[in-house]
Amino acid sequence: MLSEQEKKEIAEELEHLPRKTAGGLEALRVVQKYRSWISDEAVSDISEYLGMSETQIDGLASFYNLIYRKPVGRHVILFCDSISCWIKNADNLQEQLGKHLGIKPGETTSDDRFTLIPVACLGACDKAPVMMIDDDLHVNLTEEKIKEILEQYK
Amino acid sequence: MVNIYIDGIKYQAEEGKNLLDYCLSVGLDIPYFCFHPAMGSVGACRLCAVKMYKDENDTRGKIIMSCVQPVQDGMIISIEDPEVKHFRAQVIESLMNNHPHDCPICDEGGECHLQDMTVMTGHVYRRNRFKKRTYRNQYLGPFINHEMNRCIQCYRCTRFYREYAGGYDLDVFGIHSRVFFGRHQDGMLENEFSGNLVEVCPTGVFTDKTLKKHYTRKWDLSTAPSICEHCSLGCNTIPGERYGKLRRIRNRYNYDVNGYFLCDRGRFGYEYVNRETRIKKIKARFGAELQDTTEDEILDKITNAFEKGKTLGIGSARASVEANYALNKLVGAENFYAGISGKDHQILRNYLDILRNYPVNVPSMKETEEADYVLVLGEDITHSAPRLALSLRQTLMKKAMDEAARVSIPRWLDHAVREFYQDGKAPMTTITPYNTKLDDVASKSLRLNPHDTVKFGFLLANRINNDAPAVKDYPGEWDEWLDQLAKALINAKKPLIVSGWGNGLEEMLKAAANITQALNGEERKAGLFYALPEANSMGLGLLEGNDLSGIMETGDAPENLIILENDLYRHFDKVQADKFFNQFKNILLIDHTETNTTDHASFVLPSGVTAESSGTFINTEGRAQRFYKAYIPEAPVMDSWRWLGRIENHLKKTGGQWNSLDECLAELVKGYTVFKPLTELAPPSGFRINGEKVARAPHRYTGRTSMHAHKNVHEQKPPQDEDAPMSFTMEGYNGTPPSSLVSHYWKPGWNSVQALNKYQQEVGGPMHDGDPGKRVIEPTDNPKQQYFKVPVFETKTEAGELYLTPVPHIFGSGEMSSLSAAIREATPEPYVLIHPNVAGQNDLNEDDVAIVRANGKEWKLKVKTDDKMADDVAGITTGFRQSYIVELPLKGNIEKQEKK
Ligand code: SF4
Ligand code: SF4
Ligand code: FES
Ligand code: FES
If you classify domain B365-525 with CATH, what class do you get? Predict the structure, then answer.
């Protein structure tokens, strides 16, 4: 069941849309905001609310990288692996970061603190290499800087 | 017509048509995956690339996708240009990166479009040295097998399933190099047309799960043109046999009827044929036991028994025209009874009367797709005539195409058309007592009990045309609906009224006919499509058998009875049928499957099922269609009409001993001019092409010389078919025969079902020499404009009383299909469908057992609820093996079964 708050926020989004069935993505975002990821149950809840099949909602959810169909840690690190960042040594940094956290891309640390996900271009190529943790953009990364930044997220 | 140039040769093409479609139609081979003639183009696979040049001086040209390119005047194209050939080979190479290359163990192997296209592009060598991505496969129910690793992401499956067939539970998941086609979770595919995925998917992802139980390659199957026996629409099929077992049913293309698609009952309902309990021996009763006997012996016994006294014959709506005729002839027309209930008899009479004497236009299934307004009156079409529902659904696409054409989107650009029309609805109103599948495309759905639906229908006819009889007394809120609907139908150029047997009301047909009459005029020809219950209901009707219910009730029966392929318990109340049977001294039954009626027989003769017989079915629109044996069943099983001929010959010492179908037909048309077209449905059995018969088995058929080696090391003489100009082996003509004799699609380089392109006049058009089948009834030249009188309407129900209305079910209501294993797995328990309010009043919950009482009888049924249905109705599953409940519709009550 969707919570009252979730329902309210989805309903607000729906007001801007021509049809209820166009609201799948917005609904997924609202629910993920509260539940941190989209479980099978969340898929059912949304499909019921929007009058769409679970299969339709799941098709949508699995299309978007930033809709998580597996549990994620308290903080999600989006590490850019696209061309500008790659030129600026992002490959190497990402590997170091993974080693530091003890996880591979797509995995979550055992204490549920971090999930590491590679993304293609965060639109800050001039400050490459970059990563985003939750809603914060971190630029001009170095190995040391990354370690410091991580400390801000408990 | 414009001139275009393809590899230096001038062609005349229709402007605006898609280029791929055109090239395939003129016999040029361009590889493709995502294009499908019934579903148009999306440009997803990039395989259909060709070169296009600006003018004669352009030597470089540019690569374009032929499936999304309209034909233009003066166009210069190359299919053979080396660069574009290389491009196509590369597309295949990349599609094959993750493909498992498991052809030897793949059920698609040997009829795989991916194999064909790979060979056609010339890609032969794998260079990718990385790991392949793999998927977990899903359980998709009893019909379809899933092997996702073989997918090449052409999107045909979801385009068919979601968009063409309106399914909600198959989709694509993920993105980029990991896209998965399946369900949200494991489970049975819910759409009634899921089986078409087997033919739509160009690879081995979706394959026939029932075939897997007794797998045989396409090249090892003996096949024949046949007709589906599971409803009255007459979809064309190709049954395939090996070692005396029916292995599968495939779609046989008929432009006018089923096109490319079958329903799942038709495709998977065949398994009953291979059941152990088939009647396969000649049997005679000794005391309580039926014992095996020989043909000579039984013919003598039958002669002895039936010589004295009068004999009554009961025909069958599931037996061929020929078989019914043979029985009619044997017992005499005055003793021939149609073998259906009084109610069905009445409906059939009326329907024939309408076809013959009223100015109606009965469209083919294909033509229903062209309707620009459809009214579905009181019928759950998806369950009573499934394939028709798929056609009616296409009126949505027709509307969408018309809308899109206004902004110059070509009709064949499938996805663009759909995107443009978005959630637009079909020009359709459904009026049914409960929620039906077509409601999701209909622009309006009204929930009325069946009696109100009839009344509404008569009112509507009057609203459209004052000449139609008026109805007094109806709820005031109907006025607005009536006005809207009358307006929509009057504004349509091709309005269509649809109903069928499922609602069980004779008046429903009359209401539908009146609406059609009211609409008919100078400028408008309205269509009426009424679905009868069985494959040959129409053929039986045309033979004009007597109404059995008359003598059932009076009990005025003669001594002897012959029953042809019929289980009377499906048409009459058990007590009545028991009593009826007990009056007879001798009962001869000719059938292929044991039923409740078998218990009463004193003599039993084994008949062939459709795939083992030759004959004609006449579908609900009056189209006569020939079917041929896919294989000769093991003796003594044979065509019912042959048995009846032999009995006649033995009994009367004259006539009846037909050696071939042609002989039987020649006699039939002498007695009944209406059946004259039956002799023109296919060439006579003496027909030869280059001196050869048409081969049933393909050239590559294996193992013939050793098939019977466990019985005899010498190769057996192949069986002969007296009824068809076809051989049972690969010997014979293997080119393109007349379309009435096409039993497989196979051309050089085209091993998959897509070879069909080469048998059509143009891709997706009629068969090369026109489509098989002929209408036997066409509307009269001078019809009288006439209307049925308004019936006396049912009085209102009393407190607590409900209209018990039949609920047909695609899986469960079919007599033979419901014996088939996969269909059984998909069949729900018999249930009663009620509104939650009704459930509440009677203290019932979903899945409780309710007792339904009517007519002094009671039935125990599981409760299902539907909050969108009419609340004065209880829908009851009809025709299910566990409970036939033949007398519906009725009025009755419902209550909870008290737990002990
Ligand atoms: S899908 Fe076709 S190409 Fe693929 S394994 Fe099966 S037969 Fe071979
Ligand atoms: S499953 Fe078949 S039809 Fe669907 S995308 Fe894959 S190859 Fe095409
Ligand atoms: S490439 Fe990393 S931000 Fe654009
Ligand atoms: S057939 Fe043209 S892109 Fe697939």
Answer: alpha beta
